[in-house]
Amino acid sequence: MPWTSEDESRAGRCALLVVRGETDEERASAWSELLVVVAPHVERWARRHPTLRRWRLDGPDDAREVLVRVIERLAARGRAAVGDFVERRPPPVPEGHEELARLVRFDELAADAPEATPFEAWLRVILRYAVHDHVRHRLGWVKGANRRALGSDAARIDDTPERGHRPPMTDWVTVRQQMAGVDRALEACPPPQPDAVRLWAEGHDFAEIAEALGLADGVEARRVVRAAQARLRTALRELDP
Questions:
Q1: Using 50, 70 and 90 to split pLDDT, how confident is the model at 174?
Q2: What angle is formed at CA 18 by the lines to CA 47 and CA 80, rounded to 5 degrees?
Q3: Tag placement on the chain: N or C end, fewer CB within 10 Å?
Q4: What's the count of helices (H) and strands (E) in the chain, helices before strands?
Q5: What CATH number does domain 172-239 carry, 1.10.10, 1.10.760, 1.20.58, 1.10.1740?
Q6: Burial class (CB in 10 A: 0-12, 13-18, 19+), 182
Q7: How confident is the model over 211-240, as pLDDT tens digits?
Q8: Using CA atoms, how far apart are residues 229 and 50, in angstroms rounded to an integer?
Q9: For the whole model, what pTM was predicted?
């Protein structure tokens, strides 16, 4: 059930009425119709979201919880977020998401949906914020956990392990072997992917990476980094200690 041009048209019309409807009844009716349009898509996107899949939180209950978080964001501050769309502004950056917002600009959603229409792309930004909040909540992490923590496949350490039990990744030899494997996998990537990933890991934004490596722009730098990450994930699946 993909997002269609009819969905885009209905969502845009409802958003306009939610903000500019002449009566409370008209605005409330438009709000209800907007939720009917977006809810099935948001739940489906959540079930397929790579971050939720990585942390094995892609079940129906998790998808519905993410949907609730998205609706709460849309309804917050008197549905002001919908007004942001009507005025063609990106969704407001929630507290603790500044780093994520820096990496995922409103006009760079190609990685999530190359053919996304305006309302769909805007809604996917809100979905991404909601997904990260959901993962932090389910894993008991603080609100300010950074994007790289969410991108890790490392297992969580049990707060109350059995006596004598060694949690994963605590043995120095194992860690050193893992890091050597990462280095080898990174060096196997075609240029300029290794340099791009190192600059990204140091905290440089995509515009800075593009300038340093002579790439066309930040969009190309982002594509290079994402391609390298995909190659690394494939290579590192074979390094399970």
A1: low
A2: 75
A3: N
A4: 11, 0
A5: 1.10.10
A6: middle
A7: 999 999 989 999 998 888 888 877 767 655
A8: 13
A9: 0.53
